[in-house]
Amino acid sequence: MGQEVFSGIWLPLVTPFAGGEVDHGALRRLVAHYRGSGIAGLVVCGSTGEAAALDEAEQLAVLDAVLEEAGGLPVMMGLAGFNQRQVLARLARLNERPLAGLLTPAPCYVRPSQQGLLGYFSTLADHAAAPLVLYDIPYRTGIKIETATLLALAGHGNIRALKDCGGSLDSTQAVIDDGRLALLAGEDAQVLGTLCLGGRGAIIASAHVRPDLFVGLWRAVEAGRLAEARRLFRALAPVLSLLFAETNPGPLKALLARQGLLRDELRAPMTAASPALAEQLAAAYAALDGVRAPVAGA
């Protein structure tokens, strides 16, 4: 599977709950809702999917349901943990599924050295049937994957892309210039800037809201139509800001619940968005009604 697979707008899917349990009916409806929207693929059990609140059996059940409903749309699976033996055991079970990739952050809490990160990711890549997509998100893991480590890992044949939440413009540009890893924006507010720098796409929770506009933005940058891309980003900016005014995915689930796609329910200790923010989001979303993305190929 070549680097070109890791481009476009990928959607890190929320996990719906009902009465404390995974709502598989709503999950399947969500996949059906998004699979024809022009997105490049789905990411299951990332941070937006509240993966940390799901045990392994639940995660596998969510993944299997998504794979059944995806209709050929590529599916990437989150693989996170801080016990390498346990992560490898989970990886062996994931290897039985037809995955496009594995989204893999640094081990949280333990804060390994850069040499430790190099060994960790290389070991996972050695054992993985699907390509690894590195996930640099130091504000969640406690450790940044430094530029030199990213470039060293780019030499591994089964490490193909980076979801970039690292917060370093120099590192972002270095990975793009190196060219061996497809760089995917991970910070929603930075999607336009990252694409204009040469990023290949994005994995962003806000694409739940109007995937057609995000796909249109990506296509506009790819075609060099930057005025069109700026127009779409400016229209989306108020929603982007509100979606992260409280901890993700609380605001996102509040908005999706108003659209009838799921219940406004998260697993503790995560909490639902405040009523005031939910109202603001609903108004910002309504303001997008008249915004249209360009027709593909136009």
TrEMBL record:
<comment type="similarity">
    <text>Belongs to the DapA family.</text>
</comment>
<feature type="binding site">
    <location>
        <position position="48"/>
    </location>
    <ligand>
        <name>pyruvate</name>
    </ligand>
</feature>
<dbReference type="Pfam" id="PF00701">
    <property type="entry name" value="DHDPS"/>
</dbReference>
<keyword id="KW-0963">Cytoplasm</keyword>
<dbReference type="InterPro" id="IPR005263">
    <property type="entry name" value="DapA"/>
</dbReference>
<comment type="function">
    <text>Catalyzes the condensation of (S)-aspartate-beta-semialdehyde [(S)-ASA] and pyruvate to 4-hydroxy-tetrahydrodipicolinate (HTPA).</text>
</comment>
<protein>
    <recommendedName>
        <fullName>4-hydroxy-tetrahydrodipicolinate synthase</fullName>
        <ecNumber>4.3.3.7</ecNumber>
    </recommendedName>
</protein>
<comment type="subunit">
    <text>Homotetramer; dimer of dimers.</text>
</comment>
<keyword id="KW-0457">Lysine biosynthesis</keyword>
<feature type="binding site">
    <location>
        <position position="203"/>
    </location>
    <ligand>
        <name>pyruvate</name>
    </ligand>
</feature>
<comment type="pathway">
    <text>Amino-acid biosynthesis; L-lysine biosynthesis via DAP pathway; (S)-tetrahydrodipicolinate from L-aspartate: step 3/4.</text>
</comment>
<dbReference type="InterPro" id="IPR013785">
    <property type="entry name" value="Aldolase_TIM"/>
</dbReference>
<feature type="active site" description="Proton donor/acceptor">
    <location>
        <position position="135"/>
    </location>
</feature>
<keyword id="KW-0220">Diaminopimelate biosynthesis</keyword>
<dbReference type="InterPro" id="IPR020625">
    <property type="entry name" value="Schiff_base-form_aldolases_AS"/>
</dbReference>
<feature type="site" description="Part of a proton relay during catalysis">
    <location>
        <position position="47"/>
    </location>
</feature>
<keyword id="KW-0456">Lyase</keyword>
<feature type="active site" description="Schiff-base intermediate with substrate">
    <location>
        <position position="163"/>
    </location>
</feature>
<dbReference type="InterPro" id="IPR002220">
    <property type="entry name" value="DapA-like"/>
</dbReference>
<keyword id="KW-0028">Amino-acid biosynthesis</keyword>
<feature type="site" description="Part of a proton relay during catalysis">
    <location>
        <position position="109"/>
    </location>
</feature>
<dbReference type="InterPro" id="IPR020624">
    <property type="entry name" value="Schiff_base-form_aldolases_CS"/>
</dbReference>
<keyword id="KW-0704">Schiff base</keyword>
